[in-house]
Design goal:
The structure holds 2 protein chains of 2 kinds. By secondary structure, chain A is mainly alpha-helical. Helices cover about 75% and strands about 0% of the residues of chain A. Chain A has a single domain, classed as Orthogonal Bundle (MetI-like fold). By secondary structure, chain B is mainly alpha-helical. In chain B, about 45% of the residues are buried. Classes of the chains: A mainly alpha, B mainly alpha. Chain A: Its main location: membrane.
Amino acid sequence: MKLNHAANREIMIAFCFLIPSLAGFAVFYLIPFGQSVITSFQDGLDGGSWTLANYKELLASSSFKKASANTFRFMAISVPAIVALSLGLALLLNTRVFFRNWLRTAYVLPLVVPVASIVLVWQILFDWNGALNGWMARLGMIRIDWMKSDWASMVIVLIYIWKNIGYNVVLFLAGLQNIPDQYYEIADLEGASRLRKFGITWTYLMPTTFLVVLMSVLNSFKVFRETYLVAGDYPHDSIYMMQHYMNNMFLSLDIQKLSAAAALMAACILVLVTILFQAERLFRSYME
Amino acid sequence: MRDKQERVMPLLRTLLLAAVAAALLMPVILTVVNSLMTEREILSNYGMLGRTDTSDFVNLKWIPDWVSFVQYFNVLIASPQFLYMFWNSVMMVLPIVAGQTAVAAMAAFAFGKLRFPGREPLFFLYLITMMMPFQVTLVPNYIMADRLGLLNSPSAIILPGVFAAFGVFLLRQFMLQIPGSYMEAAKMDGAGYLRIFISIALPMVKPGIAALVVLLFADYWNMVEQPLIFLQNAELQPLSVFLSRLQKEAFGVSFAASVIYMIPMLLLFMTAEKYFIEGIQLSGIKG
């Protein structure tokens, strides 16, 4: 009886601690999101009958298709690239090198540098009259209009990598340092080859890799910031991202289409995250 | 032979890693160097940017002809607008960082250290929301701001920021590391939950709070998406959006403006780098 009383008291107290966060979270996220999902299936803003028209319109819209294709393509290029690069850097950093902490600081620094404050540098580098074209001209190459051609997406990939690589390096380094030394010592005793030892590293780094992939995907949605600041409201077609589309919808106050787009995106991300988590679980059970 | 290799390899690896570091730092260094040039030097080096009627290339220079603080003077004293926008940024970021930290610390204590029915499913909801990008969360935020009449006011950005799920998630990670025996011992001594929260949990998650403050500051100091949608008035915009305009209108002073914008973030990072890194390692997930 007394135990029950204590448990009830704990529930009450937990509720008190939770209530400020829960109330705000419900008001600004959960309830309006639920509402926007409902709106996305209705044909008028104030109720109306159920319909899939908003989704049909959305999927038929050429700018939505362009935005989602660009966002997806950006992800497909930048995520593998950043994962491979940061893994390479972390592996190197984890060997015997000088100034390890200084180097790590240098890699992490771009994370805290506001994008807006170095946009100018990207312009100086990638403008039609920019430094990169200047160097290429000196080598006798033809200049490229980096920001106003299909190359623009490559420039954005570069900025994304610049910004986020430190984050992944820190995660990979932590993962590497969690692998017990004994594994390598045993491998040494057995006279294992270098390749075999890398196999050990790779296997035990798998959970970290899942995390890094997940984070890189989530961060890749944020690349609009960089894109907007470098290329403005009307970027080249190849870097017209999901957020550009959403901004236009916000400007025309098309709440129904916005709701449909947000719901669709939330569903895609849920699927993606579930796949990643399932893959990780599968890998874990395979390990055991 | 092997001995020699052991000595040379670390050096080579360091050189390679240092080259990457230099490439990553280059934009920051270039901005700082350029902020020390006079407007005339800036215009003569970069005046051809964005122009099609000339085939000259920019002149990338690493050392100013003449070190001058005239850009800083122009930005800070001659154009009050800049300081005004700087203040806009401060007045949006500080309430979000302080508010989210306070609200999240309480909720994280409940999620990490108290038992109640529905704890796991509720936390899962926070987790999912945290992973949603702006493209998803801005729509509900907009609907609510519209209903509460907050559009075109900084509150439309501050309130969703205060209640965002990231802080709850990060601080819970730190709360989970507090040994249960500490709580039991305090309970034995007759301490109530509020006492335990204030005098045991909060002091023990100080590194977590430091990490949260730096991560939140880095994220919101840099915000672009929310002000573009929620703030129509140009005077309400934070510095992040204003800078991109300044760069077009007053090119000659924008390097100094950029540097001033970077400074608070860099200072915070230098004082709390340890916590920042720890926060990344423990979170794995950024807002």
